[in-house]
Protein: DEAD/DEAH box helicase
Organism: Sphaerisporangium album
Amino acid sequence: MFDLDEDDTCRRFVLPALKEVAGWPDERIRREFQINDGRIRATTRLFRRDPPLRADYILEYASDLPVAVVEAKRWHKDAADGLEQAKRYARLLDLPFAYATNGREIIEFDFSTGAETVVACFPTPEHLWQRYRAAKGLSSETELATALAPFDQTLRNWDNSAKRPRYYQQVAINRAVRALSRGDRKVLLVMATGTGKTMVAAQIVSKLWTARWPDTRRRPRVLYLADRNILVDQPKDDYFSPMFGDAVHKLSGGDPKTGRNIYFGLYQSLDSGEGAELFYKQFAPDFFDLVIVDECHRGSARDDSQWRQILKYFEPAAQLGLTATPVDEGNADTYAYFGKPIFEYSLANGIEDGFLAPYRVRKIRFNVDLTGWRPAEGQTDIYGNEIPDNLYGPKEYEKVLAILERTEEAARYLTECLQQNDRMGKTIVFCENNDHAARMRAALTNANRDMVQRYPNYVCRITSSDGPHGRVLLDDFRQVDTDEPVIAVTSRLLSTGVDIPTVKNIVLFRRIASMPEFKQIVGRGTRLFPAAEKLTFDIIDFVDATRLFNDPKFDGPPLRVVRDDTDETGHIVDTTSEDLPEEEVVAEPLADYEPQDSWRLDGESPDAPQITDPDEIDRIRARSRRLYVNGVDVFIDGSAHYISAGDGRRLRLVELRQYVRDRVIELDLQPDELRAQWAQARSRRALRERLTKHGVELEELAERVGQPAADTMDLLLHVTWQTPLITRRERVHRLEREHRHFLESFAPEAREILETILDQYATHGEEELNLTVLRAPALAQLGTPTELADRFGGREELREAVDQLSEKIYASA
């Protein structure tokens, strides 16, 4: 009877069924509700974004309180065709009800009962709200008040739009609020770095604040705990102060100002004093209603930690733990203290949803890391200390022995990477210790003198040993609108809790054994910042730390790997495949040797002594027993290039040519078909889009294969079927020789245009073989597009001539 599309079906049947029959107000029906942003898929250098997930309708009982999903299909489709889609969206949004309809039939799925039912009509808002309350266990007045409290909309994004919680943040907020409202004393949220734990914490407090939890006679009192200033100041200044104003106070000793409501404190400050005079004991144990423990895998995580005593003291308060990396190691067990997480959102989830940046990984191995280094008999280091006769390897480098050229070669290679991509791309370099960071800073400064002349702080070291000046540099580095510093060299200070959304490169020059630490470091680059075109990031790994991608505990997406081989100078010359090693290749450990920390260089304490006398420094260095060696031939023995791709969780290595070959074969493109599609502008454009959708970035192919003068079609044929490569200029010469009669069939004034198009093609590529080239400067000087078309007798005749020209080009094999 009807042949309506989905829009007509919704307009004529679905919306009237919701509004007029079931009584849903228009403002409570959220149309085309966007759930995520669509996954960003990294290629070897660029990226593309998948379409976002959108639910046809979300039904809200109150503002920011969704209760059901409705998925609509066109009239002649089966209503059941939309049910799995509706259920998927409902699961993501943590909603108990999913509906699918085609305008004729309505199917309901109730997650709380597991029942699938064909219903005569949509339920009314009040009826669905009562069922929602039962499904979520909302019974008390406190639970209802916190559930109905709207989200705060004070905060603004970089473009001044309202900063609203994302779908998964809403789920985390609502689950936490429900748990606290029903009386849970310990609540744990596990969310990957960059997914907005601070936003979640602030909105949880906002809902409790609005509902006057737990005592309707007053606002709640909250303590936000962390172990670093940056972890306290950033949430206080960027989130809580704008939302709660003067109710926010940072504890720093002295008067605790018990008249405030939301307190921020460092464990170190609260733990100052002795015995009964400990600062935190100026508050009664039941003073706070909620204690938020940020980065709860650190600081107070251990059972025997002095800082754990603070949490025990405030045990009458509910405690909310936030972390990206819970630990379960010996006496440090996040789950044993807080219990099972009520919500988890992983790095893989964030990348799949398009809220986190995918990554590429370039793994570089030095010859001295693969083979180890052994001193000559009686060899001394640069300070005259004799070097024990042992085989030294990565486990000893920078702790026992430092090869100066190793750091210089890493700086040279990193500089080359920046030159190839973005010299102003913000970069964090993680070194073994502060001494290593200082030498890396010097090496990078010397390798980038041209940039340092223009930007004095282009390279800087940021460690706690750098004191207040380092903090100023960190503040500048964090800002999204500053040019410098560009390269921040550190040891551990920037590994956790620092929000730097513009970071484009994470450089690993420090061995990492801890999975939580590895996740935290990777998380420094996962934040998106579209305003600066930061939608992916690169990990440059000198120490094989990325072996941890193979660990089952790592929850990111899988990777494919492309190996870049280098010449004797360390410059990339070709790509080859590589087998992924099961274990890290390291030299034998140094026997019977226990390295000691040096006087200041390993420590992160800002109170470390500042010694300037050269003789005293030499003596202290000698006592530290770290050896400094130069004159060693260090070079790069190859590099592997990883990019996020595929399904599953294992690392696999794919050489670039093999990857392109697999995609062409996967698309069932035989050589004759590929040539035929490539010959016409319209079908060529469609083919390019198909290849791009499957991860083949054609703009990069010529560069990576090292044939910038070749036609893209020839490159595809070459890497897939090993056909000989010819340049675009050679194709033009063959056309002029083999199809001269075609060119001579046109009048001289028309032939001039075709010859110019051929020259444009030979110089710039196949994109010049369409009518848009008429506006190119080389043709614009011959006349307007209309005047050029008139030389052929009209626009259609010109189009036909260009299409024939394209066919002749690709017929010349």
Summary: The chain is about 35% helix and 20% strand.
